[in-house]
């Protein structure tokens, strides 16, 4: 470890939020910093880092032009100079790569080749800054040209080789540590690059000794590969180095450019990172990478100070999420970035401590902790409105619990709208779980028993609108999106992929979402060999992560297959993270938490694309006769799964087939993915209202309004008995012996149910006969069978007598209404009371 001066990094006269042993803190840092960190890249004696483009942990690469050595910040990038020269040359990149010669002129402060002047085999040792000549020799050549004229003066190269000028010896190196340049000449200690900086900063009458002292605090010429900490105060150098080394241990890549951006700001503020300086942190808020790296480094330094001092001066009102063990939402669960939760939003000290203790005990992921904090914040806000604010555990009571409940139950979104009932109910459950943990851990022993949940503390579930179309994106809207597919992913960057490759990838993702109806996670995690051929048919191989069923198969159309194959060819050529080799859609970088694309990236791309489309019209006509604009917020990746189900439902695909396509265990789940549209339902009601009969088979047609409002659906037809209609079909005086009731109104949509009932009654009759039941029991069953048979036969005869086209329309309408009834089924309470045995 090199010696450093013992200067503090804070103004001793300035205010400090807590007492600091600066000398001990600096000594502790020296012991913790590893001088052998990043061998070949880190020069600890110069506080200089030079990135190795072959090191996968360093975010720097060499320009793709073979003859160029400049560093770039993407794996397949080219430097600005090569892009500029290629544009000026108007040739292909292949030809440019073959013919390009590195320009050795002054670039980014680095000395060019030595002066061209040669005499008696000795070359001038000074740098050729002026057209290949040193400054003195260029001045000599310039005077000759002015004296003899341009026509009689040889060019620079010829004049330098004529031996008419005396070469200068090579000057000493620049006094700035690790600077690769030579001093301008023997009478100065600085190179041209640093001499220019010195001339702008030096005081009047400065001496050479002043220049040497100034050089000791200066960084060398910093190209793309480098950053330096020499300009920082001694303590700040140690703190930043310590923070970068701890960040390295967490697996984060090191980007020299980002540290170069942070350095000057730290030097100006000259504030120890052990302090929380919000003004300093605010400098990086608009720069994503510097902001992230600064937070990580500052977090590591503050955690180091806690380890050094044994106390956390910021612990009461802030919760260090990484120190508390908070997990990442990635599959690895490893949290690389720092984060601090502000607990000062919780007015009650006991609630802050309760949240902190549960977080440290259970170590949730970021999403879970976010819900915990939101629930606690709302509850604390509600209790704070009461006298005393609920700050003392012993003062809590039912009123505080009620206030917390009311605040959570009235939680609103940013736009002022009430949050969904399920979301609010989940938050309420999270708060009660937090209290349960506190009681189990003995943290709420002082709280009175009245501070407890009451049965009234529940948020009722919102009734869904049965006429709602559902979440499916209408086909006309999808057609408009198809027409604008070329604009998807515009302006999006993704790893090292080119714009064309990114566009092709997201176009493929969109087509798979649209045509396959898989969940977003199932789409982004498709394997590279996701196509399986079976003769002329091609199936998609995918994994149902939710159902934990792997290698599922889905038939594909030819268009979808061609799109996937085209992307597979591109996928084989693009640079991708090594851990993404098995996946069709690679992760964005080597440091991604999952090996494939994150579904969040897909959602963000779809949202960005949809928001930039000039116009999206729905299939609804407004009062002016024009199509109404479609609500773009209803377009998101999962909605395409609903559209997939709706598309097949509209084509009258049998439920069991659609259930298989959706890969659902329960058909009720499948039915929740689609809706019979209101228009189709109305048409079906209109047709079948004319086919209603009574129990004798006599026609009893009615208006569509009467069909829906003056009758109630019972298992085997419609019922018009007033008391039963009022009770929603749950108060039949005849115990659902519909075939013998004068209020019974069946129609053809109930034929399958009637036939099932006939078979069920026959089975019951056989059972009754085997049990030697009384004649009136068997007679009742026989009479019901005969009555239902008469109803079914009458309706079948009526359908047979219709023309083929009209009969097909009636059958389609019947199918639609059966879908409506099956999709709107409600669970019924048991009719018998079950009494538990006494303990």
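^ Assign residues to that structure.
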């Amino acid at each position: 470890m090199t010696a450093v001066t013992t200067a503090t990094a804070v103004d001793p006269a300035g205010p400090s939020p807590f007492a600091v042993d600066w000398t001990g803190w600096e000594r502790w840092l020296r012991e913790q910093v590893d001088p052998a960190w990043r061998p070949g890249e880190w020069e600890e004696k110069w506080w200089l880092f030079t990135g190795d483009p072959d090191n996968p942990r360093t975010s720097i690469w060499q320009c793709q032009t073979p003859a160029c050595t400049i560093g770039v910040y993407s794996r397949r990038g080219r430097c600005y100079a090569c892009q500029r020269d290629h544009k000026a040359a108007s040739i292909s990149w292949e030809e440019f790569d073959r013919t390009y010669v590195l320009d050795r002129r002054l670039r980014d402060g680095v000395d060019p080749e030595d002066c061209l002047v040669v005499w008696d085999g000795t070359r001038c040792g000074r740098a050729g800054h002026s057209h290949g000549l040193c400054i003195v020799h260029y001045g000599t050549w310039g005077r000759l040209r002015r004296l003899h004229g341009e026509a009689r003066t040889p060019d620079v190269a010829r004049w330098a080789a004529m031996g008419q000028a005396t070469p200068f010896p090579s000057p000493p190196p620049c006094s700035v540590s690790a600077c690769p340049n030579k001093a301008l000449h023997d009478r100065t200690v600085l190179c041209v690059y640093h001499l220019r900086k010195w001339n702008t900063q030096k005081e009047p009458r400065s001496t050479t000794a002043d220049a040497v002292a100034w050089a000791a605090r200066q960084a060398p010429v910093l190209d793309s590969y480098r950053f330096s900490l020499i300009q920082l105060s001694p303590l700040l150098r140690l703190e930043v180095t310590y923070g970068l080394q701890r960040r390295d241990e967490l697996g984060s890549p090191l980007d020299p450019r980002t540290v170069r951006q942070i350095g000057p700001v730290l030097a100006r503020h000259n504030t120890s990172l052990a302090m929380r300086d919000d003004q300093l942190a605010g400098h990086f808020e608009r720069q994503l990478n510097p902001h992230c790296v600064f937070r990580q480094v500052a977090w590591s330094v503050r955690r180091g100070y806690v380890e050094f001092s044994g106390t956390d001066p910021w612990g009461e009102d802030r919760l260090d999420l990484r120190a508390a063990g908070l997990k990442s939402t990635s599959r690895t669960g490893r949290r690389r970035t720092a984060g601090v939760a502000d607990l000062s939003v919780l007015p009650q000290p006991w609630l802050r401590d309760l949240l902190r203790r549960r977080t440290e005990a259970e170590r949730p992921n970021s999403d879970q902790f976010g819900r915990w904090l939101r629930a606690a914040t709302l509850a604390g806000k509600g209790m704070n409105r009461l006298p005393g604010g609920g700050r003392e555990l012993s003062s809590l009571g039912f009123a505080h619990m009620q206030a917390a409940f009311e605040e959570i139950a009235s939680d609103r979104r940013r736009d002022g709208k009430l949050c969904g009932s399920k979301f609010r109910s989940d938050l309420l459950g999270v708060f009660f779980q937090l209290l349960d943990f506190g009681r189990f851990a003995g943290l709420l022993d002082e709280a009175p028993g009245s501070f407890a949940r009451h049965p009234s503390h529940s948020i009722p579930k919102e009734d869904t609108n049965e006429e709602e179309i559902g979440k499916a994106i209408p086909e006309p809207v999808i057609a408009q999106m198809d027409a604008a597919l070329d604009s998807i992913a515009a302006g999006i960057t993704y790893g090292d992929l080119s714009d064309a490759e990114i566009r092709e990838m997201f176009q493929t993702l969109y087509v798979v979402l649209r045509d396959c109806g898989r969940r977003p996670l199932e789409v982004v995690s498709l394997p590279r060999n996701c196509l399986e051929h079976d003769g002329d048919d091609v199936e998609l191989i995918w994994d149902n992560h939710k159902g934990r069923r792997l290698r599922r198969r889905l038939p594909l159309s030819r268009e979808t297959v061609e799109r996937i194959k085209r992307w597979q060819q591109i996928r084989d050529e693009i640079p991708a993270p090594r851990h993404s080799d098995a996946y069709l859609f690679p992760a964005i970088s080597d440091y991604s938490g999952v090996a494939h694309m994150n579904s969040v990236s897909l959602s963000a791309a779809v949202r960005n694309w949809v928001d930039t489309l000039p116009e999206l019209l729905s299939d609804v006509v407004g009062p002016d006769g024009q199509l109404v604009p479609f609500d773009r917020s209803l377009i998101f990746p999962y909605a395409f799964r609903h559209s997939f189900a709706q598309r097949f439902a509209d084509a009258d695909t049998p439920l069991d087939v659609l259930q298989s396509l959706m890969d659902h265990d329960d058909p009720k789940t499948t039915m929740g993915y689609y809706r019979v549209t209101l228009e189709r339902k109305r048409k079906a009601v209109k047709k079948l209202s004319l086919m209603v009969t009574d129990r004798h088979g006599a026609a009893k047609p009615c208006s569509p309004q009467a069909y829906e409002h003056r009758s109630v659906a019972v298992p085997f037809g419609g019922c018009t008995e007033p008391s039963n209609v009022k009770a929603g079909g749950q108060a039949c005086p005849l115990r659902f012996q519909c075939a013998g009731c004068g209020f019974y109104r069946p129609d053809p949509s109930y034929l399958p149910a009637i036939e099932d009932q006939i078979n069920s009654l026959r089975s019951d009759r056989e059972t009754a006969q085997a049990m030697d039941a009384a004649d009136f029991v068997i007679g009742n069953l026989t009479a019901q069978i005969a009555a239902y048979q008469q109803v079914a036969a009458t309706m079948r005869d009526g359908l047979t007598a219709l023309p083929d086209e009209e009969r097909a329309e009636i059958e389609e309408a019947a199918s639609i209404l059966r879908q409506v009834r099956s999709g709107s089924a409600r669970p019924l309470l048991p009719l018998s009371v079950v009494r538990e045995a006494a303990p």
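Confidence is low (pLDDT under 50) at residues 1-15, 464-469, 824-839.
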